[in-house]
């Protein structure tokens, strides 16, 4: 019985995942949220079926009914979150909400399978974060002064990062987080959001040379501090967000190419100067000859995991993803690929991409430049982090050690991402209102035209 | 009209940069997804065999290693469970398949290494797995059927007798390996007990598969390649070649002699080849364009990766534009620094037999689950042309003359017509010590089987290697 469950569930899981992912892109066929209602309902059913079947397998494999109770709690919280978002904010984008819940449930599934204690901890953090996230759209929507806080963002961002660096140095420069009352914070995660707000507020009014110059100075400070703290992933994210936001704000291709050129030069210098950068690059170029070193070992174990799953995976609890160091954070994608298979993991990538495209569509639809830049910056922050973690774990690019948003274990990461998603929801509401106003104006204009012709 | 189009056009223009960034990231992710799928599927087997990959142990704890069979269905390796529940790998033919089938503990060798992925995975039907679960037994791993033929392997093994050396028997039209014998050999069933002794013995290199990894001076068998290059450079006039052999040729301080002091007198191209005249071939070698020769060697896969899925040595010939005449003379007759594996020579011979096209040599025919369903089948794969059909035809003619009126006359006048080339490769510092070589095929008009033989330190190829070829051909055609 158990064997049949684990064998056939692999097909069921892959099918549900493919159908869900299909709906993610089917959404873009319709221009208006109203007409997407059927898709969103189907997505919710598929999500529910996927989540349930995965936990059924885990329950069978582990032979303990407690997993089904844990599942019930997760289902209640996710359902409550989706419902509350929709009730409180009728004008939100429901693809973003659905994908948020889907990614969270994938995270719960794989974390439960890897480490029950961490999964419970993550569940509590997610619950708390969702409560915080629920109020964010309201603030974004109402607080018009957010665009005036340019220097506050810059100071808070640099300050938080500097504190980490100073504290980090006292602990041999390898620590990226500090604990307050037993809760561990990783400030660079939150600073990502603040940084996007800084860039948007600095560039929305004017984007001449002076504005670009000041943002460059502040961005450089962020990046350098992160490189010194050995957090290369965050440094790259800050840099990418900076270059692309300047490009979109100025609409000047010179800044895009100058940014890429400058970034390449800086990367080369960092490679020559910093030993920890060299180690990452070497482990990427040839992990097999460095298999006995920490860097090479991580990436080769990750490749073993990805390659052993095949199209449909070994089945939940059937593989050995725990052989990969820090699998719950930096290599969660490899664990998913091993046990759920290539089909599911590529669907996971595509869910992230559809989320990103929706972010970009929201950004493109906003008329207010501050909001547009904010939505765009958050989208880039999100997708580039996904790219770094999946690409790094699969030897597509050098490993930088960042988390997969909403899926990986880690409180700071999941809270930050939930806030980012909520900010986008707030911006989507603003966009809907802008659209409604525009329609009213248009209608009035048409009426007057009609009158005139009459 | 203008009023209605303008706002959208303006909006699109306004958002061109956002659209561009969206496209770039979407394409980036598509290529990454493609890369992940491609990488994981193409590297699945290679990565599971890595000793750092713990998943192997997991599979072995779950599945019982599958059996290895010969082409005719004889068990070559299987796992039995003794009274105490201990698993043991048994090899019913003892030493006979030591390198071909190999071993699976203390590292892996042979088919045991090459097909490890299939042997440790189980595609047994679910119903069977379920009933094994209830009895708390392991699943049967998939069985591997090789191309090896027990009879041909036995003939090859006994023909080598007490000598060290290597024998490879293949089908030129398919690339199937029928027999692969390397001596000295060992009993893979005893590998645990004899391991220390084998590892500590530096001299005899028992574990080395001489067929695929043994690097030998090719001796006169290399004249096949020298002849091919001469034909390529002189396609219309090679038959006009003429040379007066006085038993030796001298260039500066370098002197090449014919084997055992023979003097061949007046020889043309065909006779130089049939009689294996060293001085004539050294003379031919001096006339060759070295750049073109290096290209020909590349096209024959010297110094390159071979299209096989087992371990092999890289055969090397050091030809470049600036080598000395003395070295060129040595190379032309297969001496000097040149080193060749029996596998490489067999592949070239097969290409000649198969009208210039090389079929990739292979050992694993198909993989089957415990219920007899095919899990994977390996079909013959062409590697492409090593030479033109005309060139292959000319070489085949030369090699037939070697049998009819040359150094392989022990193969003359049989029920089939054989073709081939002998070699007596001198090695070491003592003059006269030589490895006996033969590489060839039969029947010449429609080649079915190709053999390559080397006997270490035996003497002349015509005297020692050719009789083994005869026994192999006889055995092959008797069975038909």
Please provide a written account of the structure.
The complex is a heterodimer of chains A (454) and B (480). By secondary structure, chain A is mainly α. Chain A has helices at residues 2-26, 37-62, 66-88, 94-114, 116-142, 150-170, 187-203, 209-228, 232-250, 253-273, 275-285, 294-309, 332-365, 369-393, 411-453; strands at residues 178-180, 183-185. A two-stranded antiparallel ribbon of chain A has the order 1-2. In chain A, helix 13 runs parallel beside helix 15. The longest helix of chain A is centred in the last third of the chain and has 43 residues, at 411-453. Chain A is globular and about 70 Å long. Chain A starts with a helix and ends with a helix. Chain B has 480 residues and is an alpha+beta fold. In chain B, 40% of the residues lie in helices and 19% in strands. Chain B contains 18 helices and 19 strands. Chain B has helices at 2-14, 16-42, 44-48, 55-62, 110-114, 116-120, 126-135, 150-160, 191-200, 210-213, 223-233, 269-274, 278-287, 290-299, 325-332, 342-353, 389-405, 461-479, and strands at 63-64, 68-69, 75-81, 87-90, 139-140, 143-146, 165-170, 177-183, 242-245, 248-251, 254-257, 265-268, 357-359, 364-368, 374-377, 382-385, 419-426, 434-442, 449-455. Chain B has a six-stranded mixed beta sheet, with no helix packed on it. Residues 1-7 of chain B have low confidence and may be disordered. Classes of the chains: A mainly alpha (454), B alpha+beta (480). Chains A and B meet through helix 1, helix 9, helix 12, helix 13 and helix 14 of A and helix 2, helix 3 and helix 7 of B.
Strand content of chain B: 15-25%
Structural class of chain B: alpha+beta
Low-confidence stretches of chain B: 1-7
**Major sheet of chain B: size, sense and barrel closure?**
6 strands, mixed
The low-confidence parts of chain A are 170-174
How many strand segments of chain A?
A: 2
- Please give the alpha-carbon distance between the first and last residues of chain B: 87 Å
User: How many angstroms does the end-to-end distance of chain A come to?
Assistant: 77 Å
Largest sheet report of chain A: 2 strands, antiparallel
Series of H and E elements of chain A: HHHHHHEEHHHHHHHHH
Tell me which oligomeric state these chains represent. Answer: heterodimer
What is the C-alpha radius of gyration of chain B, as a whole number of Å? 28 Å
Task: Give the C-alpha Rg of chain A.
Answer: 23 Å
Q: Indicate the percent of residues in helices of chain B.
A: 25-40%
* Morphology call of chain A: globular
Strand order of the largest sheet of chain B: 4-3-2-6-14-15
């Amino acid at each position: 019985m158990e064997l049949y469950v684990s064998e056939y569930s692999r097909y069921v899981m892959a099918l549900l995942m493919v159908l869900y992912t299909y709906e993610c892109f089917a959404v873009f066929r319709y221009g208006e949220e109203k007409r997407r209602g059927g898709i969103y309902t189907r997505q919710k059913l598929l999500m529910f079926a996927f989540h349930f079947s995965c936990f059924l397998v885990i329950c069978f494999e582990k032979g303990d009914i407690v997993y089904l109770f844990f599942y019930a709690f997760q289902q209640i919280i996710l359902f409550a979150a989706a419902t509350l978002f929709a009730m409180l904010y009728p004008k939100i984008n429901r693809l973003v909400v659905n994908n948020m819940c889907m990614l969270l449930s994938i995270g719960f599934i794989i974390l439960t399978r890897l480490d029950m204690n961490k999964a419970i901890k993550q569940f509590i953090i997610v619950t708390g974060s969702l409560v915080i996230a629920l109020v964010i759209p309201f603030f974004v929507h109402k607080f018009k002064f957010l665009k005036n806080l340019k220097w506050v963002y810059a100071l808070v961002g640099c300050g938080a990062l500097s504190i980490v660096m100073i504290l980090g140095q006292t602990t041999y420069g390898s620590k990226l987080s500090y604990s307050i009352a037993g809760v561990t914070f990783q400030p660079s995660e939150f600073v990502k959001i603040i940084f996007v707000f800084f860039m948007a507020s600095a560039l929305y009014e004017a984007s001449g040379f002076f504005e670009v110059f000041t943002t460059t100075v502040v961005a450089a400070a962020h990046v350098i501090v992160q490189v010194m703290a050995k957090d290369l992933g965050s440094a790259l994210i800050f840099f990418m967000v900076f270059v692309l936001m300047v490009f979109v704000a100025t609409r000047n291709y010179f800044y895009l190419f100058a940014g890429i050129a400058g970034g390449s030069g800086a990367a080369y210098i960092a490679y020559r100067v910093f030993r920890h950068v060299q180690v990452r690059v070497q482990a990427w170029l040839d992990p097999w000859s460095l298999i006995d070193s920490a860097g090479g070992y991580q990436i080769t174990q990750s490749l073993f995991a990805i390659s052993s799953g095949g199209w449909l995976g070994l089945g939940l609890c059937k593989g050995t993803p725990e052989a990969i160091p820090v699998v719950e954070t930096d290599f969660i994608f490899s664990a998913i690929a091993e046990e759920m298979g290539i089909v599911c993991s590529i669907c996971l990538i595509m869910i992230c991409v559809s989320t990103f495209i929706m972010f970009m569509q929201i950004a493109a639809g906003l008329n207010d430049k501050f909001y547009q830049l904010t939505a765009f910056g958050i989208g880039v922050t999100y997708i580039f982090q996904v790219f770094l973690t999946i690409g790094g774990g699969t030897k597509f690019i050098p490993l930088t050690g960042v988390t997969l948003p909403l899926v990986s274990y880690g409180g700071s990461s999941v809270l930050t991402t939930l806030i980012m998603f909520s900010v986008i929801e707030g911006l989507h509401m603003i966009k809907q209102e802008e659209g409604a106003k525009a329609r009213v104006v248009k209608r009035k204009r048409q009426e007057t035209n009609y009158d005139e012709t009459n | 009209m203008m009023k209605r189009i303008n706002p959208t056009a303006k909006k699109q223009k306004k958002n061109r940069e956002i659209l561009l960034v969206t496209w770039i990231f979407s394409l980036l992710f598509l290529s990454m997804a493609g890369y992940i799928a491609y990488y994981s599927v193409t590297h699945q087997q290679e990565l599971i065999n890595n000793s750092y990959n713990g998943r192997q142990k997991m599979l072995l704890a779950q599945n019982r290693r599958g059996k290895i069979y010969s082409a005719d269905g004889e068990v070559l390796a299987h796992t039995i469970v003794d009274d105490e529940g201990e698993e043991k790998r048994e090899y019913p033919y003892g030493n006979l398949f030591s390198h071909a089938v190999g071993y699976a503990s203390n590292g892996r060798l042979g088919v045991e290494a090459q097909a490890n992925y299939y042997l440790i995975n189980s595609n047994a039907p679910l119903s069977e797995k379920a009933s094994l679960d209830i009895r708390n037994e392991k699943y049967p791993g998939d069985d591997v059927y090789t191309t090896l033929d027990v009879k041909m392997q036995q003939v090859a093994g006994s023909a080598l007798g007490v000598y060290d050396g290597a024998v490879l028997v293949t089908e030129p039209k398919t690339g199937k390996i029928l027999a692969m014998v390397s001596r000295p050999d060992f009993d893979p069933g005893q590998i645990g007990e004899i391991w220390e002794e084998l590892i500590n013995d530096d001299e005899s290199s028992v574990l080395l598969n001489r067929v695929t990894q043994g690097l030998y001076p090719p001796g006169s068998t290399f004249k096949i390649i020298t002849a091919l290059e001469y034909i390529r450079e002189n396609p219309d006039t090679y038959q006009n070649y003429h040379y007066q052999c006085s038993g030796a040729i001298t260039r500066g301080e370098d002197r090449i002699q014919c084997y055992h002091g023979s003097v061949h007198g007046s020889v043309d191209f065909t006779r130089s080849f049939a009689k294996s005249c060293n001085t004539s071939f050294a003379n031919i070698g001096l006339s060759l364009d070295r750049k073109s020769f290096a290209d020909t060697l590349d096209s024959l896969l010297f110094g390159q990766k071979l299209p096989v899925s087992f371990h092999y040595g890289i055969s090397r010939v050091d030809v470049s534009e600036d080598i000395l005449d003395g070295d060129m003379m040595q190379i032309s007759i297969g001496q000097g620094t040149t080193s060749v594996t029996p596998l490489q020579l067999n592949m070239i011979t097969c290409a000649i037999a198969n009208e210039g096209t090389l079929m990739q040599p292979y050992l694993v025919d198909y993989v089957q689950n415990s219920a007899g369903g095919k899990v994977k089948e390996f079909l013959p794969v062409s590697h492409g042309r090593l030479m033109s059909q005309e060139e292959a035809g000319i070489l085949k003619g030369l090699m037939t003359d070697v049998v009819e009126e040359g150094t392989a006359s022990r193969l003359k006048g049989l029920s089939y017509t054989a073709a081939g080339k002998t070699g007596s490769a001198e090695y070491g510092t003592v003059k006269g010590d030589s490895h006996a070589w033969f590489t060839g095929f039969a029947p010449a008009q429609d080649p079915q089987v190709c053999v390559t033989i080397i006997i270490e330190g035996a003497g002349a190829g015509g005297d020692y290697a050719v009789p083994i070829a005869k026994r192999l051909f006889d055995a092959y055609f008797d069975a038909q």
